[in-house]
């Protein structure tokens, strides 16, 4: 039996990274004495080791073996886990990731780090070495005076058990670890030698285990074969010592009845190629984890329910299609109504299909949030601050592409919160706050957007420091009065940092501008709220998906533009009494209490247009970055969903335009980038002002 | 099968020796087109398609020679008027005005741009050694866009470098 193993390697890698993630998050949640967590960490390490061995990633196997040994000692209670151990295990997880990544890319890795960690692991194990021997010795003693319950286990495997890669011998040795095991092989199912198939298993067993393990512990051993055997686990009454040893003896005797047959069985089992064992185990596991998805892989795992709904919709679409084509075969004008309803149905189907397809790309944001517990853990050690991380709304879904691109900006914001936001413990106590700071990550949906909030209960942003720094850098005039949000926006200027000392975490003044740019390139925006002494909150507002948006089509001259519906506050016809001209050539429109500046699109984009006068013209009031503006348009056309196409692919980024789309008639229409347009208009106004100032100076 | 064996009477050398089947050549093929009175050529393998002129969607605040973008089977393709870009001839749009759509792979990224020219004229075969260096005496076409000159009879065809043509628009507009 030979299997091309290489086809399983991607699955192995994917699963290993998942395992590593699990190990990491479990390690961070580790409370002493919680066996379930330790077990899950151990299992993850164990399957990585097994897989790596199968695929010949020997360095991974060797390294993981050490980790596993350490975990095993912890699991068996032979070692009390200390903070140092947790740290070492976290570093080990990093090393394993490094090794597996190297194996994936067939690249070199940081050998020093691995060697160093290997030494550390060996040292740690070494210290414990003697203790573990004592432990073994003790367990020997235990055997002499068997304590605990007597379990009687009937294990009748199905004939094909070994074909699925399971080895009863391994199960028995695992059971033997739990206590004293005696077993009896039953050969009553054995067929005649001529009918015997060498790849099938005909033997069943009766086992007796003397152990203080619980039934669950025993069942766990059979976890992998549960579905492929008849398993009965019965606890015999706790008998006095003498009778227990009697039972034992009798079992021992019976076990020795057919030594040859159990030997032959052993041979049979060991003949199974190890590879088959591992790979089949893997496939099984992959199926179990279907809903999980790796962070930045090129593939998505999709829940069966999502696929099913797609298939259902597809079926409806086919029905509609056949109905329409039948209608088209002998069409008469009297059937127009029927055609219309058919087309309506088609529209409905298409919309639903589109929604379902988009859902496939949606992933819970926990994939982006996963890395933060570790990050905060590491940073809090580095900075010596005590920090709790609270994560909420991790099931909020958003588009995979958005998720991949929002990761780094979020990391930056969290780093900032740790480094600049949270004060040192001493300072917190002096200010009457709890000793440990709290950073909260929250995600939720709002309209068609997802909001991610990163808040800390630290010292808040020092308004004065930001302002004086900005004046020093010449970003603001010293006389200017700025609102809080304007001051906080200065943080996103390139090269801006108010940190008194530059740490290696943050404070070099690079980054926040990049954060803002990244978020904007995703069509999102970022807002800052801060209260001195209470804390700061960064609010990131992102579109759910990058592929499709709801748009309002507008006409300017001969061109059609699309305004994202989400930015639109309202559309109105300008009335003369609300139009005000201020400071020469700026037009303001009074919208209830607000004065909204009017941006004529034709002016901004240098186009011919029908309407140049604001009076009676159509204004689309849009909002971005908390600023409302009125866009002057010639006509309001339809509202529709548009598929966003990038201009960057074949051309370049265009100011004021976020992309293009193809309309129903095949023509191209530009999608307006509202924040970009506001920025453009402000820049132009600034330039004009400068010109005036220059002219004034010349006069 | 050796194609020369099929036509053994015909001499192996010579540019236009095989009337009608002049594609038998070891050299490359070039699409020639007109800008005003002048002949230009691009590598034919880069030509995605030749379209008739249609009014594209305007890109706001783009330079004059960027006429806009069109939809080519779902791809947004910018349209650049080479006559305006190189300042050759008159930028008029008539029935024979065509757009040559070129696709070039640059650093693993494929870029597709349409170029407006006055007319497409011919397919030209040229061996590498027939391509002469272009003398540099100024002119409207930037030297980096020119790969060389090819003599065709008494006329000369300027061979344009498709990669630099594609990158023309990468630079930020002043």
UniProtKB/TrEMBL annotation, chain A:
Catalyses: ATP + protein L-histidine = ADP + protein N-phospho-L-histidine
Q: From which organism does this entry originate?
A: Brumicola pallidula DSM 14239 = ACAM 615
Q: Known SMART domains for this protein? A: CheW (SM00260), H-kinase_dim (SM01231), HATPase_c (SM00387), HPT (SM00073)
Q: What is this protein called?
A: Chemotaxis protein CheA
Q: Which UniProt keywords apply?
A: ATP-binding, Chemotaxis, Kinase, Nucleotide-binding, Phosphoprotein, Transferase, Two-component regulatory system
GO MF, one example: phosphorelay sensor kinase activity
Q: Where is this region: Disordered?
A: 241-273
Q: Where is the Histidine kinase domain?
A: 334-546
UniProtKB/TrEMBL annotation, chain B:
Q: Where is the CheW-like domain?
A: 27-171
What keywords is this UniProt entry annotated with? Answer: Cytoplasm
Q: Write the signal peptide boundaries.
A: none
Stored InterPro entries:
CheW (IPR039315), CheW-like_dom_sf (IPR036061), CheW-lke_dom (IPR002545)
Chief subcellular location equals cytoplasm
Compartments reported by the entry: Cytoplasm
What biological-process terms (Gene Ontology) are attached? chemotaxis; signal transduction
GO CC annotation, single: cytosol
Gene3D superfamilies, per the entry: CheA-289, Domain 4, SH3 Domains
Q: What is this protein called?
A: Chemotaxis protein CheW
Organism listed in the record: Brumicola pallidula DSM 14239 = ACAM 615
């Amino acid at each position: 039996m030979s299997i091309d193993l290489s086809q399983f390697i991607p699955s192995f890698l994917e699963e290993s990274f998942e395992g590593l993630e699990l190990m990491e998050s479990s390690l961070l949640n580790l409370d002493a004495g919680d066996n379930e967590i330790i077990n899950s960490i151990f299992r993850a390490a164990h399957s990585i080791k097994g897989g790596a061995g199968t695929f010949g990633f020997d360095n991974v196997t060797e390294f993981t073996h050490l980790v596993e040994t350490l975990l095993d000692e912890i699991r068996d209670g032979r070692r009390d886990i200390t903070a140092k151990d947790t740290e070492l295990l976290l570093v080990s997880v990093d090393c394993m990731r490094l090794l597996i990544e190297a194996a994936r890319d067939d690249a070199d890795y940081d050998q020093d780090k691995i060697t160093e960690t290997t030494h550390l692991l060996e040292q740690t194990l070494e210290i414990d070495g003697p203790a573990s021997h004592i432990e073994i010795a003790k367990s020997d003693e235990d055997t002499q005076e068997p304590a605990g319950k007597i379990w009687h286990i009937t294990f009748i495997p199905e004939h094909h058990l070994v074909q699925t890669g399971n080895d009863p011998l391994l199960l028995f040795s695992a059971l033997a670890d739990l206590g004293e095991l005696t077993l009896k092989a039953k050969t009553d199912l054995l067929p005649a030698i001529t009918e015997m198939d060498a790849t099938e298993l005909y033997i069943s067993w009766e086992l007796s285990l003397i152990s203080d393990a619980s039934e669950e512990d025993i069942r766990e051993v059979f976890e992998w074969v549960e579905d492929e055997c008849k398993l009965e686990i019965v606890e015999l009454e706790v008998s006095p010592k003498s009778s227990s040893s009697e039972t034992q003896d009798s079992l021992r005797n019976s076990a020795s009845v057919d030594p040859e047959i159990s030997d032959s069985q052993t041979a049979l089992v060991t003949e199974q190629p190890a590879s088959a064992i591992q790979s089949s185990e893997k496939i099984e596991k992959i199926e179990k984890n279907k809903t999980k998805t790796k962070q930045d892989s090129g593939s998505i795992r999709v829940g069966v329910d999502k696929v099913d709904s797609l298939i259902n919709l597809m079926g409806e679409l086919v029905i509609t299609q056949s109905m329409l084509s039948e209608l088209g075969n002998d069409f008469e004008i009297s059937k127009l109504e029927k055609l219309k309803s058919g087309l309506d149905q088609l529209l409905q189907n298409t919309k639903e299909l589109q929604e379902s397809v988009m859902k496939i790309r949606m992933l819970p944001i926990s994939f982006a949030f996963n890395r933060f517990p570790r990050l905060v853990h590491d940073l809090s050690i580095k900075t010596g601050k005590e920090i709790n991380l609270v994560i909420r709304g991790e099931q909020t879904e958003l588009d995979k592409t958005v998720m991949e691109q929002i990761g780094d900006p979020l990391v930056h914001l969290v780093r900032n919160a740790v480094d600049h936001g949270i004060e040192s413990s001493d300072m917190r106590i002096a200010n009457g706050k709890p000793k440990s700071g709290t950073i909260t990550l929250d995600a939720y949906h709002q309209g068609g957007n997802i909001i991610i909030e990163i808040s800390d209960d630290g010292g808040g942003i020092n308004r004065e420091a930001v302002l004086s720094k900005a004046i020093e850098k010449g970003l603001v005039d010293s006389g200017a009065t700025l609102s809080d949000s304007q001051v906080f926006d200065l943080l996103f200027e390139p090269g801006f940092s108010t940190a008194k000392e530059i740490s290696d975490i943050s404070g070099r003044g690079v980054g926040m501008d990049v954060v803002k740019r990244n978020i904007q390139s995703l069509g999102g925006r970022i807002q800052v709220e801060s209260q001195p002494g209470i804390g700061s909150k960064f609010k990131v507002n992102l579109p759910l998906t990058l592929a499709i948006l709801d748009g309002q089509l507008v006409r300017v001259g001969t061109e059609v533009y699309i305004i994202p519906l989400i930015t639109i506050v309202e559309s109105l016809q300008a009335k003369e009494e609300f139009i005000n001209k201020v400071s020469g050539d700026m037009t303001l429109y009074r919208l209830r209490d607000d004065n909204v500046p009017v941006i004529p699109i034709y002016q901004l984009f240098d186009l011919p247009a029908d309407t140049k006068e604001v009076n009676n013209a159509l204004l689309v009031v849009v909002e971005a970055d908390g600023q409302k503006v009125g866009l002057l348009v010639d006509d309001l056309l339809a509202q529709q969903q548009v598929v966003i196409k990038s201009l960057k692919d074949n051309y370049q980024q265009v100011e004021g335009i976020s992309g293009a789309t193809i309309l129903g008639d095949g023509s191209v229409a530009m999608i307006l980038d509202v924040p970009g347009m506001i920025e453009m208009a402000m820049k132009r106004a600034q330039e004009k002002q400068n010109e005036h100032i220059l002219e004034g100076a010349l006069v | 099968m050796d194609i020369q064996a099929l036509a053994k009477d015909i001499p192996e050398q010579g540019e236009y020796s095989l009337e009608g089947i002049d594609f038998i050549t070891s050299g490359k093929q070039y699409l020639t087109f007109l800008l005003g009175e002048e002949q230009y050529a691009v590598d034919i393998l880069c030509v995605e398609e030749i379209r008739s002129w249609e009014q594209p969607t305007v890109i706001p605040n783009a330079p004059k020679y960027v006429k806009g973008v069109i939809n080519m089977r779902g791809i947004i393709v910018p349209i650049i008027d080479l006559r305006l870009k190189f300042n050759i001839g008159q930028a008029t749009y008539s029935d024979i005005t065509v757009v040559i759509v070129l696709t070039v792979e640059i650093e693993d990224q494929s870029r597709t741009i349409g170029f407006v020219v006055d007319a497409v004229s011919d397919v030209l075969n040229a061996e590498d050694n027939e391509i002469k260096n272009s003398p540099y005496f100024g002119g409207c076409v930037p030297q980096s866009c020119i790969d060389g000159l090819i003599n065709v009879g008494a006329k000369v065809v300027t061979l344009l470098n498709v990669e630099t043509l594609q990158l023309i628009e990468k630079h930020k507009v002043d």
